[in-house]
Structures are given as C-alpha cells and as structure tokens.
Design a protein that fits this description.
Elements (H helix, E strand, L loop, with lengths): L1 H8 L3 H33 L6 H23 L5 H21 L10 H13 L1 H23 L13 H101 L7 H25 L2 H5 L2 H16 L2 E5 L9 H22 L3 E8 L3 E8 L6 H6 L7 H12 L3 E6 L5 E8 L8 H4 L1 H6 L1
Parallel strand pairs: 1-2
Antiparallel strand pairs: 2-3, 3-5, 4-5
Helix pairs in contact: 2-3, 2-4, 2-5, 3-4, 4-6, 5-6, 5-7, 7-8, 10-11, 11-13
C-alpha cells in the first residue's frame, strides 16, 4: 500500500508543479474554513458543548499543521507520510468541530465536501478517494457516537434553528462557489491537455513523415551501396577471369611447350609437368572465384541460366539434391532485380550448406507482369525462426538480415518460416516496378561497352 501511495503522490513533475502552484490557494481556502469554524464554535457553542480554550487549541494546531504542509508543498517535498499527515491534520479538527456542533446534524458537515474536492482537484483522484475513505470513517464514527448516546444532541436546542439553517446555507453557498471554481479549473486543465495532445499528435505526424523521408533516403543509399558493391564484384570477377585467367593460361601453355621440348629422360621434365598441373589447379580456382563473385552468365544470358548454372555447381559440390522450377531460360528481368534475386538465392543456399544439414532443396522461381517470386525450401534440421529474427546471433545472423534488407531495398516482402526438425522456407516477392530506372549506374562504363 505504501509503495502504491508513493506512486500516486510522486507520479511526476507535472503533478508536483500542480500541487506547488495551488499551494497558496489551498492554504487560503483552509484558512477561511478554519476561521469560519473557529468563529462558529466560539460564539455559538463555547461553554455549551466545548470550552473556549479547547476551540483555540484545536484550530491553532490546525493552522500550524496547514502551514507546515504548505511549506512542504512549495518545496515539492511530498511523501506518503506527509500526505496522510495532511489528511489527518485537516479532517480530525473538522471532525471534532462537527461533534461539538451536533454530530451528523452539525452545520459544519459540508466542510468535509470541501476537503474531498480540494484533494481530488489538487492532489489527484486517487488522493481524493483516500480522503473520501477517511471522511466515511469519520461519519460512521459520529453516527456510532450518536447511537451510543454520547453526542451532545441536547445542546442543539440552545442554538436557534434559524441560525443553524443560515450556517448550513452559508456553507452550501461556499461549497457551490468552490465547486464552480473547481469545475472551471478542471475544464481549463482538460483544454490544456487537449492542446498538448494536439501538439503531440502534430509532432508525432511530423516525426512520422520525417521517418518516411529518412527511410526513403536510407533505401536509396542502400541501393547505391549495393550498386557500387555489385559493380566492384563484377569488375573484380572480370579482372580475375580475363587478365589473371589469361595470364595463367598463357603460363600453362608455355609450360606445356617446355615440357614437350624436354627429352623423356630429362630430370626437369617431371618438375615442369608438376608446375603445369599446379597452374591448372590455380586457374580452376580463379575461375570458380570469378563465378562466385559475379558469374558472367548472369550479365550475358540472364537470371534463369545463371541460377541453373549455380544450382548445378552447388549440388555437385555439396551433394544436395536441388529441384528447380523456373520460367523459360529467355525470361529477362531488370538487371538490378536479377542481381537481387541471385544474391538472395546464393545466400540462402549457402546457409543450407552451412547449417541446414539438408538432403533435398526445392527452388521455385516465378514471374508475372508485376512481381517476381522466389522460394527456397529445404528438409534440414530447421531452427526457431521467430526468436532468430527477433534477436539474430552475432556470429551467423547477418546472412538472413542481409537478405531481408536487400529485398526491403526494392520494397519487397521477405519471410522466413522454420521449426526445429521441420526444415526451412525462405520466400520473397519483389515488385518489378521497384527496379532502379537508370540501372546502367551499376555497370558504369562497362554497360556502355556491352550495349
């Protein structure tokens, strides 16, 4: 309960500022209440139901307690203990005044409504409920005292009925005025909150629009980075295939000529033959690396032949059976879309070889007038896809993230479905309209030479 009350009282700086701003008004209202009750008790009930010095002492303590509470409110140093102290210091003197002036029939009973209203408007609804509960306990106590025969009901006859009625009307008028002011304050608070809410909504919309612009900039930047990367890989692949490959081929041919010129009994012939074989192995490695970096068939013949060639080499290297469903080989797409689909397929099959332990893979590639779809489904060990995508492992989570970001760059949809022991399904859809218009940027000067 104390922790809950702490959260209620110390809810934030806004409530502290509200209590601090209203501290002076609250002190003034309580001073008027206390002075009114003190005057009524002193002039009407002093010597009848209570001694004068008791009245002076009670309301002197009431004044001191409210001054102490006022100082705490101004310093924004409210605590749960001080809130309960404030409630007790305000309600107990009023309870005593009500007892001395007739119990539940006292004209001072309406002051409790003022207390509850002030707590509700200034301290908050929860503290208002706390004060209401304390007031209910006091009212039940007054009723119990009256039922037990200890209430000074006989003293009521000594105070004229007309005086009691006027007092009641005066307090009711005061209550009405305070409630009216409280209602106006409440509506002003609502208006301020609506204004702040409207400003917040406007700022949120502005931030949302700015985020959309930033996302578009990031998408364009990602496209540019991928273009530069693909351009670099393409040129590097050509350099390896053409320059280094041709140089190694020439060296291998020269070694072959030297080998034929040497006699069968020459001690150098075996070494030349061994060097020629090593050059051949290096040449094959260079060709494989060139194909991995950027296969020439992708640029020359298109995506479908490139996929068929890559799948054949992948299946031969990993001994994984792959079933391919693809459109006719002459099907061509925008070059940037073809590169994106090829890279996703390459990364997906690489993950199959590294982690899936699969025996069969199905690759479905379909194209219509609007979108291109690619699906890779394996029968491997699978994994918890939801947890993986929520928090990818640092060591091997970048492949899936790379595929997802590459597809998102072209405003496509990317999904990964997997369960342990049930294989993995990677599916993506890329709208053909998302292709970069000037795709020659990816190829640089080479595209103009080819075209």
């Amino acid at each position: 309960m104390w922790s809950h009350l702490t959260q209620i009282v110390l809810r934030g700086q806004v409530q502290h500022r509200r209590v601090r701003a209203a501290a002076g008004v609250v002190l003034l209202v309580r001073a008027l209440e206390g002075a009114g009750c003190w005057a009524i008790l002193l002039h009407l009930y002093s010597g009848v139901t209570v001694a004068a010095w008791v009245v002076h002492f009670t309301f002197a303590a009431y004044a001191v307690a409210n001054v102490l509470s006022f100082r705490r409110q101004r310093r924004e140093a409210l605590t749960p203990s001080w809130v309960w102290f404030d409630i007790a210091a305000n309600l107990l003197p009023m309870a005593a005044a009500a007892y001395w002036s007739g119990g539940v029939y006292s004209p001072l009973v309406p002051t409790f409504v003022l207390k509850i209203t002030s707590y509700g408007l200034i301290f908050g609804a929860d503290i208002g409920i706390q004060s209401l509960a304390a007031t209910t306990v006091i009212a039940l106590s007054l009723i119990a005292i009256e039922q037990a025969g200890y209430a000074p009901t006989g003293a009521l006859d000594q105070v004229p009925m007309l005086a009691r009625q006027r007092l009641t009307l005066a307090f009711e008028g005061l209550i009405f005025a305070i409630l009216l002011l409280g209602g106006l304050r409440f509506f002003r608070i609502l208006q301020e909150r609506e204004t702040r809410l409207a400003v917040t909504v406007e700022e949120k919309n502005s931030l949302y629009q700015a985020s959309l612009v930033d996302q578009d900039h990031l998408r364009r930047l990602s496209q540019t980075v991928m273009q530069v990367s693909e351009r670099t890989l393409r040129r590097l692949a050509r350099e390896l295939h053409d320059d280094l490959g041709q140089a190694l081929t020439a060296v291998r041919m020269d070694l072959g000529l030297i080998e034929r010129e040497l006699g069968p009994d020459s001690p150098v012939r075996g070494r030349v033959h061994e060097a020629r074989e090593q050059i051949g192995a290096v040449l094959q490695s260079v060709r494989n690396l060139s194909q991995l970096l950027r296969p020439a068939v992708l640029d020359d013949l298109g995506l479908v032949p490139a996929v068929q060639s890559y799948i054949a080499r992948f299946s031969q290297r990993t001994q994984v059976a792959i079933a391919l469903e693809a459109p006719p080989a002459e099907t061509r797409l925008p070059r940037t879309i073809e590169v994106a689909l090829y890279r996703v397929l390459q990364e997906a099959l690489t993950n199959v070889a590294r982690h899936a332990n699969a025996q069969h893979v199905t690759v479905r590639f379909t194209v219509d007038s609007a979108v291109a779809r690619l699906e890779i489904h394996d029968d491997g060990v699978g994994f918890d896809a939801a947890a993986f995508l929520a928090r990818p492992p640092v060591d091997h989570g970048m492949g899936v993230i790379g595929m997802r970001e590459r597809v998102a760059t072209y405003r496509g949809e990317f999904t990964v479905e997997s369960q342990r022991g049930a294989g993995t399904r990677v599916a993506l859809t890329i709208p053909l309209a998302a292709a970069i218009e000037d795709s020659d940027e990816e190829y640089g000067e080479d595209s103009r030479l080819v075209g």
